[in-house]
């Protein structure tokens, strides 16, 4: 990982440290992901070795304190559980940044335990009814994600569904063999 200093809009945000993680080298570092530990509201430019990023990371607002929360995070800085992002894939839920055909099931089980420690509904027994519902929804989503990713046949079907293939297309044999799933 490459450590850089990212400057954000002087009017609303502060300078913060961020880490840039290369997602793909297909376009010579043009595609990357910004992982920030101190959220900014209106990131304008992030200086990178090969140029500038003018796209801010996907952010939503906390339902409790209205601070920005990144889409792959389950909690805000105020420690309130957040609703599961509707666009989050099962791979995103477990920290895989792109669909992976081969997954180490031991590593997947470890990630599942780590997430369950944070999101288990029993941890929210004294929370508000809304937070209890969010925890139950998150636990259901994580359990579905784990069940799908744990079995290689289900995982592969899920990867194909992410690329627009439907279950009936796969079972009827109407899928063209020329597709590139990578």
UniProtKB/TrEMBL annotation:
Signal peptide boundaries: none
One GO CC term on file: mitochondrion
Gene3D superfamilies reported in the protein's UniProt record: DnaJ domain (1.10.287.110)
GO BP: [2Fe-2S] cluster assembly
An example molecular function term from Gene Ontology annotations: protein-folding chaperone binding
InterPro entries found in the cross-reference section: HscB, J_dom_sf
NCBIfam families according to UniProt: hscB (TIGR00714)
PANTHER family named in the record: IRON-SULFUR CLUSTER CO-CHAPERONE PROTEIN HSCB
Protein name per the record: J domain-containing protein
Organism: Paragonimus skrjabini miyazakii
């Amino acid at each position: 990982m490459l450590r850089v200093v990212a400057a954000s809009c002087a009017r609303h945000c502060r300078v913060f440290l961020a880490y840039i993680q290369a997602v793909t080298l297909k376009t010579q570092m043009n595609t990357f992901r910004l992982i920030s530990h101190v959220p900014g509201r209106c990131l304008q430019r992030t200086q990178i070795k090969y140029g500038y990023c003018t796209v801010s990371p996907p952010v939503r607002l906390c339902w409790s304190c209205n601070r920005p929360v990144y889409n792959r995070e389950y909690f805000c800085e105020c420690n309130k559980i957040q609703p599961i992002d509707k666009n989050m894939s099962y791979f995103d839920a477990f920290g895989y940044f792109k669909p992976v055909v081969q997954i180490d099931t031991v590593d997947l089980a470890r990630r599942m335990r780590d997430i369950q420690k944070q999101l288990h509904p029993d941890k929210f027994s004294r929370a508000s009814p809304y937070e209890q519902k969010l925890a139950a929804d998150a636990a259901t989503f994580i359990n579905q994600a784990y069940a799908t990713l744990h079995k290689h046949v289900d995982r592969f079907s899920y990867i194909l569904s992410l690329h627009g293939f439907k279950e009936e297309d796969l079972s009827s044999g109407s899928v063209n063999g020329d597709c590139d799933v990578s």
